[in-house]
TrEMBL record:
Residues 57-88 have a biased composition (Low complexity). It comes from the Bacteria. Residues 47-88 are annotated as: Disordered. The keyword Transmembrane applies. The keyword Membrane applies. It comes from Lujinxingia vulgaris. This is Uncharacterized protein. The chain crosses the membrane at residues 247-268.
Amino acid sequence: MEIRCEACKEVGPAAEVRAGAEGMELVCASCGHANLLKVGSAAEPLAEDAQSRDGDASSAPGPIARAAAERASTTASAPRTSASAAPGASLAEGVVEAAMARLIPVPGAGPRCPKCAHLVDGADHCERCGLSLAEAHRYEPGQAPWEAAPAGKDDAFLRLNAAWARAEDGDAQAMQRFARLAVEEGLVEAGIRRVRFYLVEHPDDARALEALRRLATALQARVTIAASQAAASAESFGKDVRRLRGLLMTITLALCSLILLLLSAVFWDKC
């Protein structure tokens, strides 16, 4: 993933993605300048919970709302460690919370999408991921494309499956090791899928929610860098277009001048 540094104009991969006072910052690997990437306000997404995001609204508070209430009650009297870092940290946390609200499956009974665990009662397609349920049912268990290892990651996928088996067995640390392995091996989507199905049966499992938070953070960081790369590519393309346009104008003026000189020479010869 590449960015274009606004200080040194160097194009290259970001050395670090971090929360700043005004938003997410992408640190230039060349000069160390922190390039601000605005991610928008997180206040509105925080008001929504997974119940209102993934299906019919429910009057019961969901896991995100319950976790937020618990954090608020336990940290209300805690002193702030850094006033300057608080706004950026709050924004970064808000972005992750919004991502969490989109990822936690809506609770309830009924058939689920085999790909993303969303409720699909009576539907032909999953409204969350668009999967055709008729097509999905043609695959044998474990043979669907979304259950296969990504290209070139067969060994990592096997390790991820083994880590998930230990996590499902109730190992206290296995869930976090599973999330860490998914992030390190670039298998975030596969990790999220497994945790989502697990949360359908265990919606209040703190270990699973924390693992999903880690995966959501990794996914959001990747989206942030991709957005920055797209912006840098668009800026670079615009500069290339302006440079080419200037070159074409120069060539056109030069040709016009040459034609004018030739016509002038012919005119003076006849005189």
